[in-house]
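Closing statement on the magnesium ion sub-project.
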Amino acid sequence: MSALLRVSGLRAAYRSHAVLHDVSLEIPMGGVTTLLGANGAGKTTLLRAISGAMVTFKGSIELEGRRIDGMSTDAIARLGVAHVPDGRGTFPALTVEENLMVGAISRRDRTGVREDMGRMYELFPKLSGYRRSMAGLLSGGEQQMLAIARALMLRPRLLMLDEPSFGLAPLVVKQIFDMLREIKQEARLGILLVEQNARLALEIADSACVLEVGRVAIAGDANSLRGDPRVRAAYLGLQQEST
Ligand SMILES: Nc1ncnc2c1ncn2[C@@H]1O[C@H](COP(=O)(O)OP(=O)(O)OP(=O)(O)O)[C@@H](O)[C@H]1O
Ligand SMILES: [Mg+2]
């Protein structure tokens, strides 16, 4: 089966500062692929390159067999790539409902959009009570939920999440990951999840990839990475085989 996303030989730089060196990876349709790596490894840069938010890179990026590198961010989004950036990916001066509408801006199926809007309020009941509130007034956790809901309004083929747990209380992180499990079950899409919390990420992921200073150091199914001594020592804080 062909991959949902195939990145080959990607090199990216900010001016003369090279950040990604020959990165290749595949994301299958269905399931969660997690991208792990220390601060500065280039995780966010990789997501930016995929979504077209970064112009200076070489290599090829294919979505369902079609080259998307070189396309505009808008064109890539229309093909079904939704990117929830690090930080709060919402429009603070728009209401919750307006933020969701923005997520669906490229869709023409009004009935589907209305249905999906209802589905988002089911998935995130907290948002339902704030439909007409400004997004900027929501708590950090609620804004992260809104950012994910907004991305889902695109009906993406590929959903990319950049550290959705960052700065959130454990209970809120649990709610977000429970919801990701639900999406993974019900929607036909692939999820690329960047996470600092490797334990949590490997629990939900089917496959995983470790980026070390701009190179893929380890890649494989999530189970084998959980047992990999290098991952256990560097990302899970474990030395022994026991858990
Ligand atoms: N806009 C930018 N201009 C110049 N250098 C940048 C820019 N964004 C990132 N970098 C540099 O690129 C490298 C990789 O950064 P990136 O944000 O991709 O890492 P990351 O793996 O997402 O890290 P973190 O876990 O801290 O989010 C770092 O050395 C960073 O300083
Ligand atoms: Mg980052």
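The longest helix spans residues 170-186. With this model delivered, the sub-project is considered complete and its resources will be redirected to Aim 3.
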